[in-house]
Design brief:
The chain is 37% helix and 19% strand. With 195 residues, the protein is an alpha/beta fold. A seven-stranded mixed β-sheet has the order 1-7-6-2-5-3-4, with helices on both faces. The model has no long low-confidence stretch (mean pLDDT 89).
Amino acid sequence: MLYKVAVFILRILVFLIFNLKTHNSEVFNNSNGRYIICSNHISMIDPVTLAVSSKRKICFMGKKELFENKFLGYIFGKLGAFPVDRTGVSLSAIKNSLAVLNRDEILGIFPEGTRVKEYNEDNAKPGISMIAKKANSKVIPVYIKGQYKFRGRIDIYFGQEKDYFENYTGKINTEKYTEVGKEILKDIYSLGKDR
């Protein structure tokens, strides 16, 4: 209930402050079951614009520093978000991610782990692809473009759902997971080409 109320209020604010346009969002909004939304990350407002662009609840993985304030941490938790320690392997974040997907819900992740200005495949990490594999979940790449300024144009491009392990057989090691992570990152940024 809190999530729906919060998103309703945020949706009004976002459309008043920004000129938000979504593209191909019906692919995502008309879907059922578990998915991982993987997006580039240009601003701390990205989770908000993604949430208001979705008809379904998105449970975001966020850096643990956002949860250090007890009040904000409580609110984020009620909204379905959970912390991740970006300095190492965060087992609790992996566990929470799998729990979200096993409930056939939507997991939101910024696979580069921090805000970046341009594509660099070396920013790809194995964690997201490992979660997708273990949860048997498809991934929907998303590209956000624009400037978060008053009445600034923000475009959100949704890609097609994809099973990144469809052609993989046998045991998958860290190198393979990283390779898939690079493929996911490439698909995200390809959505923004020539835009």
